[in-house]
Amino acid sequence: MKITLYLVPEDNEGKLIKEFLQKNKIPFKEILTNDLALLQKIACAPIQERISLLEIKKSHSIHVITGFIKHDLTQLVEHIEKYKPNIKNLK
Prior knowledge:
Number of helices: 3
Helix content: 25-40%
Distance between the termini: 14 Å
Strand order of the largest sheet: 2-1-3-4
CATH architecture: 3-Layer(aba) Sandwich
CATH superfamily: Glutaredoxin
Shape: globular
């Protein structure tokens, strides 16, 4: 599993995602960006504003969380606790 936070510097939700991951001791790679085209490519959807994204690559899928969605982040923590996947921290 690889977890990458595409952090938009002025985005408060991105800061909340980062704090959540750190609090739950989830290793992740952080990429600072303001590149809307890159964010749209990661989201696989047109997005109208710069918002932080969390990309979770598993062996069988890619999941992208757009902004701070506590429910999705909590599910990520529960998945990690239950299955104990090898998280490749690429810092």
